[in-house]
Amino acid sequence: MGDTGQNGQGGKSLRFVAAALILRGDEVLICQRKAGSPMGLKWEFPGGKIEAGESPEQALRRELGEELGIQAEIGTHVAHVRHSYRSGGAVDLQFFAVHSFEGELTNHIFEDIRWAQLRDLPGYDFLAADRDLVRDLAAGKLL
C-alpha cells in the first residue's frame, strides 16, 4: 500500500487493522481492553495490526491465535471502516465474519471477553472506530 500521505502532525500514520466478528447464533464475541492501556476498558472486536506481507485474513488468524488461543476459519468480509482519531492517528479497519474455530477460547490479553447479543451491542462503550458498525450490527443490517 505504501505511504498514503496521511502522516499529519507528529508523524501519526494510518494503521491497517483486521478484526473478527466471531459469531454464535445471534451473539458475537466482544473484548474489553485492559485497564491502563490506551483507551482502556473500551470494548472492541478481537484482531490487530496487519503486518507487512500479510493479507488481512492471515493477520486476523494470527492475532486471534495470540489474543484468544483459537485457530479461526476466517469467513466473509463484512465491513470496511476508516476512522481518524482526534489525537491525529487514523485506523483502517476490515471486519471479517468468523463462524467456526478450533481450540478453547482463552483470554490472553483482555480485561474481559464475553458473548453479547447483537441487538445489545450499543449498550457497551465501544471504541469510536467501531460505533457505526455496532449500530448496523444491532439493527441487523450487516449479517
Chain-wise SSE layout:
Layout (H helix, E strand, L loop, with lengths): L13 E11 L2 E6 L10 E2 L2 E3 L6 H13 L2 E14 L5 E13 L9 E6 L13 H8 L5
Parallel strand pairs: 1-6
Antiparallel strand pairs: 1-2, 1-4, 2-3, 2-7, 5-6
Overall description:
The chain has two helices and seven strands; from the N terminus they run ββββαβββα. The model is unreliable at 1-10 (pLDDT under 50). It has 143 residues and is mostly beta strands. 15% of the residues lie in helices and 38% in strands. Strands 1, 2, 3, 4, 5, 6 and 7 form a seven-stranded mixed sheet that branches. A hairpin with a 5-residue loop joins strand 5 (71-84) and strand 6 (90-102).
Question: What gyration radius follows from the Cα positions, in whole Å?
Answer: 15 Å
The DSSP helix count reads 2
The helix fraction, in percent, is: 10-25%
Using the alpha-carbon principal axes, give the shape.
Answer: globular
**Helix/strand class:** mainly beta
Distance between the amino and carboxyl termini:
29 Å
Strand elements, count: 7
List the uncertain runs: 1-10
The arrangement of helices and strands along the chain is EEEEHEEEH
Q: For the report, how would you describe the main beta sheet?
A: 7 strands, mixed
Q: What does the average pLDDT come to?
A: 92
**How large is the share of residues in beta strands?**
35-45%
Briefly say what this structure is.
This protein has helices spanning 56-68, 131-138, and strands spanning 14-24, 27-32, 43-44, 47-49, 71-84, 90-102, 112-117. The chain is mainly beta and 143 residues long.
